[in-house]
Amino acid sequence: MSEINMPTSSSVQPPLRSGSPKPAAMANGTPQSPVSMASFDTSTKVKLVVKISALQSLMLFLAIVISGYLNYQRHESIILMNLQNQLQLAANTVATSIDGDAYQTLQGKASVGSVEYVAVKSRLEKFLVNRYLGFEDNHIYTFRRVMDDSVEFTAMLQEAFVGDRYPINQKMREVFTEGHPRYTGIYTDKNGEWVSAYAPIFNSRNEVVGLVEADFVNNKYLLALRNELNYMLMFSLIGVGLSILISIFFSRLISQPIVQVARAAIEFSRGDFNQMVSVKSNDEIGTLARAFNYMVSEIRQKFYLQSYVSDSTLAVVKRRSDSEDVMHEKVNRTIFFSDVRGFTTFVERVPPEMAVSVINQYLSVQARTIKAMGGDVDKFVGDEVMAIFSGADAGLKAIRCALRVQEEIAQLKAKNNFTLDIGIGINSGYVVEGSIGSDDRKDHTVIGDAVNVAARLCSQAEGGEVLIGETIFRIVQNSTDGSNAAGLSFAPKGELQLKGKLQPLPVYAVSPA
User: Fold this and answer.
1) In sequence order, what DSSP letters do the residues of 246-278 get, joined into one string?
2) Which of 67, 197, 459, 490 sits most deeply, having the most CB atoms within 10 A of its CB?
3) Phi/psi of residue 293, nearest 5 degrees
4) What count of Cα atoms within 13 Å lies in the side-chain half-sphere of residue 343?
5) pLDDT score at 201
6) How many CA within 13 A on the CB side of residue 407?
7) Which is nearest to 386 in space by CA: 329, 444, 438, 441?
8) 5-33 average pLDDT score
């Protein structure tokens, strides 16, 4: 037959509801029968706690390691506090021995060799020569503030560095501004690991004119404590290795089934609804595996049914499952109807497999476009589609969707040598929205005059045509200030006399501007 391409029987698919995932069980076009699992055994013969107890030795060892590390932290804190106190005492001792009035006359390198400079340097030398507090050479010196963000070496034993600038840190800044001694914690730079203390130098007017810095670098007590920590970590690693070797058998018993369930859950989340895990134990992990298999069988059936339900119906079911009352209400909606022209005659001339394949392609194009344009496919009735648009711009969205559908159908026809066209009718108005049907079979949909008018407009539309009523025409015109700013063109198509209506309904054909 020249008007269509003959599809293979394997391509025949029942129409799926827009937005619903296709279960893996339907991959070949025929749904597989879900596994029936009305219940599963929850009894346990071997408790999981028995298996976990095998790992207690490792946990005990880790507890020892943690307690050892905390003990190290405590010792480090004590040593650091002692170092800070020693440094602070040294800095304070030297600072109080310096004449502040003479000190404030020093100007860096220019003052080297002056009487004032020699007096300050002699104080530093005397302190270090007597080995007060175990200080090493050259780690006590004085600064003066030269800028907001820097200080300058004023007097020190290594005179080559006198006059060099040094970025001011927060502790130094506090000494200059508050006049109180300060000390640091442990800090590291390219020259080693340091602890420092600072003391202010006052002049006769009680102004801070400089500060004394005393340092410990790579202190032997801290280094010894670091070595102790290294030894502790080394033996801890050996112990952990032994513990892992002892517990590896038990950990496999526990971890492998859980990993299998996790992998199955990941594959299930990707759409493989045929995932099942083997049950090899009667403990809590076995119960988890049986529960997973039961969940898969139940969800697989629900996903299979979901492809036959509209998004609005799914939303209603979810609200009911969340104990939220679902009300029947009167709402403003835009109704979209489409119908394949000449499909009844076409079905009579072709094999059933071909008829189903062709209509599925037409319906899939429409469902995909409606979903993308913000609509909800309410139902498929043979070769007819009913969709609902909501929101302030629902009318404009529905019209643009209809024009897009006609473009997509034209491309589908050209690609597959199809000859069937569709007509589309759109109408806006107040409708009753709710669950309609019998006690055992309901459909969440809309009913009312606006729905009937949309259906009549669809029946009047020719192939490739989009018809709208007076109500939606005025809504769209107002949204575009009466111009073609929305990229649409409206052509009057006469009037439609509807049953039960005294006045005929003006009809407009919509096309791209």
Assistant:
1) HHHHHHHHHHHHHHHHHHHHHHHHTT-TT----
2) 197
3) -60, -40
4) 22
5) 95
6) 10
7) 444
8) 42
Place of tokens 């009937």: 452
Q: How far is CA 259 from CA 82, 252, 253, 272, in A?
A: 52, 10, 11, 17
Q: Give me the mean pLDDT over the 172-179 stretch.
A: 93
The pTM of the full predicted model, rounded to 2 decimals, is 0.45
Strand partners, 95: none
Q: How far apart are CA 507 and CA 458, in angstroms?
A: 11
Average pLDDT over residues 326-335: 82
pLDDT of 435-491, one tens digit each?
A: 887 877 777 788 999 999 999 999 999 999 999 988 888 888 776 554 444 678 899
Strands annotated E in 148-262? 150-155, 165-167, 182-183, 187-189, 192-202, 208-217
Characterise 309 by phi-psi region: left (phi > 0), alpha (psi -120 to 50), beta (else): beta
For Cα atoms 313, 319, 322, give the angle at the middle one, nearest 5 degrees: 145
SS3 of residue 488 by DSSP:
strand
Closest CA to 156 of 133, 188, 122: 122
Type of residue at 458 = C
State which amino acid sits at residue 359: I
Residues in CB range of 101: below 8 A, 6 or more apart: 203, 204
Q: What is residue 37's predicted lDDT score, i.e. its pLDDT? A: 40
Question: Distance (Å, rounded) from C-alpha 165 to C-alpha 374?
Answer: 67
Mean pLDDT confidence for 182-210: 90
Distances (CA, A) of 329 to 311, 396, 446, 447, 471: 18, 23, 10, 11, 21
Name which of 184, 179, 218, 216 is nearest 199 in CA terms: 179
Determine which helix (DSSP H) or strand (DSSP E) holds 88, and give its type and residue range: helix 56-96
CA atoms within 13 A on the CB side of 149: 0
